[in-house]
Amino acid sequence: MKRLLTFLFLALMFSFTFSVLGREKTVLAAEEDLLISEVMYNPQGADSDHEWVEIYNAGTDSLTLIGGATPVSLRLVDGGSNRVLALEAAQGDMTLAAGEYAILAQNAATFLDNNPGYSGTLIEVSGMSLGNTSDTLALRIGTDGAVWSGLTYFNTWGGDENGKSLEKVDVLGSNEEINWTESSSLGGTPGVAYGSNAKPQAVFSSVDQAEVGKEIVFDASASNDTDGSVVLYRWDFGDGTSTESVENSINHAYNLAGNFVVVLEVSDNEGATDRTQKTITINDSVVYSEEVMLSELLPAPGAVTDWDGNGTADSNDEWIELCNTGSTSFDLGGYSLDDIADGGSNPYVFSQGEVLAVGECRAFYKKDTSLILNNDQDSVRLVKPDGSLLEEFAYSISHPDLSWAKDETGSWLEDETPSPGLANSEENQQDDDDDDDDDDDDNQDDNGDNSDNNNLNDQQDNQNETQDLQTTSIAEAKKKALGTLIQVQGGLTATSEILGAQIIYMADASGGIKIKLDEGDYSTLALGDELLVSGILSESWGELYLKISANGSLAVLEHTTALAPQEIKTGDVGENLEGALVIITGMVTETAGDTFYVNDGSGVVKVYIKESTNIEKPRMQVGDKVQVAGIVSQYNDTYRILPRYQSDVVILGDVLGTTTALPKTGGTATGFFISCSVLVAGLVLRRSRLL
């Protein structure tokens, strides 16, 4: 038995010895096939983890590289040190096909960060440290095997901390200086033969999810080509839409909800291509409930009344009141209160569960919101969870312990008896409103009686008293001093009671102007009437107007074709068009209550539908194309367009996408995120021989 065991042991030892000797013999025959072909020895910036060496299988058979620290493992000789290869490749596998390149990297993860488009074999080498001024590199088997592909380089050859590598010109040639050169592109050309065109790298970014109809920016500016330039971007948005462009970014909106795979393919100046993709989630459009409103606010608390009930009357007694106008309870979660846009206060965002009961009004105090309202001029804004404006009220001045309160018509009036948490009192509201700002106090005659001017016929009779007054253009009239008696002639552009009590608008070739009528019946006035008007030049909330009083008059000279609105850009609305009848076409950028905003690319303009017009605001959402006709009006520093009639507001074309109404509780929309990963698999080659 002992003899048998001894025989088996000797047989195994002989077999192992023969196997090892056989491998070494094979290695000796293959030394010339594996060559060093490129070196990144002194990267731009820090060297640590950024150095690498490229090797190339110049033979006709595949080669299997053995990592680790065994006697038959491949080693990278670096300045006399035998560097150990990892047992497994970080990318690809340990077998190189004939003509295949591989990268021996100081740090595989860092290499891929620097070269995200590299898809070849990548092997990490422990302890690699290449000299910056000079070094000697070679390959060997084990720690004492013969070296081959020896290279001694110097920084004078190129690639010295300028982001470029040293490349071997003729990969089968010598390792003399004449056969090595600095790479033409930053980062070198890992995995690519000298003089070959490296393929570009496709990279793009975008949001991961969006709503139907919302434009998404797809940015491919990070796409690159190491040895040339990206010249063409081809996009497939996964919804049946594809396009190509020489620009590196593009906008696209989806008309349906769902998950879409977006594919980008880029081409370089040599025709090489690369592609990448990601999945984007498109959710149904969200409409947030608007059944909550600003109702009252107190910006200037006095030194007597302790409004918040904390025992002290001070500046912390400022408050803003909200009311639930709907038929169900309203959850304020996600909605926010803010002062003037880009002001000094941070928005106050309501938490989920902050509920207003049906018909409830509630005051929110400064001690809780930290909102600071200016006494002289400021605004209060109610903002939806998606950041769009629901309502805004701007005031010019506030008096101590007087509030600004909204009446039943939606007008804001100063109230002598603030009522936080209660219905607003109309008896003590002083007329000094915001959007219904046309109800200025009329001047009366010395007897306080306006009976001499109570109808249109009386106004025409009064013309005789001012017949010697010189008629001027509306544009010139606006240049006169306030209080000047002026006479103008023009066509009627807005009939009485449409844009305010006793208010009309007229225009001539030079511009338009508001007319504040005296008491009387003006129901017979019609669009197309040519008017001769005299009145006192006045101003209200920044807008100039003529006020007809005892010294003024209005006469209808003739009836002609109604004036057509002037077609303008949205960005043109301003002082020079105040009072003019205009028409705009553009996209809705924001909508809230009776207000919406339009932009045709030249700038945003506010459109406000006054309650007195009885216009039913068309159902609209952001992204809709609209056409609006109306009068340009000024309120404080804001210019807006006031539609006159239902036909002045038209939705053009179909609404983009599907609209889903939210419950009246003001809940938020939820979505889901799907990411798409691209698996790059290395080519697994059959091992034919060992190295």
UniProtKB/TrEMBL annotation:
It comes from the Bacteria. InterPro entries: BOBF_sf, DUF5689, Ig-like_fold, Lamin_tail_dom, Lamin_tail_dom_sf, NA-bd_OB-fold, PKD/Chitinase_dom, PKD_dom. Residues 428-449 have a biased composition (Acidic residues). Keywords: Membrane, Transmembrane, Transmembrane helix. The keyword Disulfide bond does not apply. Residues 269-401 form the LTD domain. Residues 199-282 form the PKD domain. Residues 411-468 are annotated as: Disordered. SUPFAM superfamilies: Hypothetical protein YgiW (SSF101756), Lamin A/C globular tail domain (SSF74853), PKD domain (SSF49299). The chain crosses the membrane at residues 666-685. Residues 450-464 have a biased composition (Low complexity). This is PKD domain-containing protein.
